[in-house]
User: What shape does this take?
Amino acid sequence: MATMADVARSAGVSVATVSHVLNGTRPVLPHTRQAVLDAVEELGYTPNTLARSLVTSRTRSIGLAVSAISNPYFTEILQGVETSALEHGYGLLIADPHDDPRHELKAVRLLHERRVDGMIVAPSAAPGDLVAYLRRHAVPTVLLDRALDSPGDDAPAFDQVCADSAEPTARLVTHLAGLGHRRIGLVAGRPGLSTTRERIAGYRQGLAAAGLPYDERLLVHGDSESDGAERATAALLSLGARPTGLVTANNAMTLGALRALRDAGLSVPGDIALCCFDDFAWADLFRPRLTAIAQPSREIGARAVRVLLDRLAEPDRPAQSVRLPCSFVHRTSCGCPETPEAPLERGTRS
Assistant: This one.
């Protein structure tokens, strides 16, 4: 098996230079770097990552803790994280906290014990113990998808990468209102999640913009799950004056809402118009095709990796909060003809 010394002799450089090239610890002239990489390829040299981690206190690994990995939204985020991590020479360790605060803490502690260099975490609705652990151990962390509020004008305690939620939800509501709907319901997510709060805020903003009153009976919680959304939608349909338009706040809840509508013998959009937050691969296959807000899932994951690497390079820099824009995908479940999808007028904030 080839050693680093073998690579150095073949490339005509010092062992220290080989180390700098492989670890990115110091700039190396392009032709020298290429000579080292050619020697690595020719000799089939494989770095001893365990030995390197003992010397550098870095494992070149990232911990990812996200719930519902089977959810297409998080699956795409995972692909973005993995691709970006590999591009930067990092491995990935994954844990599923199941949106349970107690399990969340165990999952993050397990990743930390594996000596990951940093973590990317989608926090639960009650992340107090998680936050305390990350702060106590000074773990370089990027919060993903779900943000933590900062008190007053304070800067965020952690780096955060999320998609916009309020404005896109308002866009769905005003779209339905523009089609003549005056009773528009919302199947919201799990209470306590920032995405739930923001989408409820967007729902109310959309009603206000359309000159419609807010009726608390038209807002129900599906707890971010299909079964919960099915029950919540059934409750909406049992109202004396049921909604004629419906917004669902994530893709899993869209499926639950559709089951409830089917069981009630209602058609979309004939009996009730439907718009959903989260586009997914088979949304285009439904009849009618689902009008949706598409989040930049892979870019969220990739950006989270880049922000984490920035944090590892500059541990003392101020935390940053990145918001990525969504797209409005216009199909037919809202009750109008298809038009080309139109991006929301929103830029990235950092």
In short: Residues 340-350 have pLDDT under 50 and may be disordered. The first strand starts at residue 61 and ends at 65. The longest helix spans residues 297-313. The two ends are 47 Å apart (CA to CA).
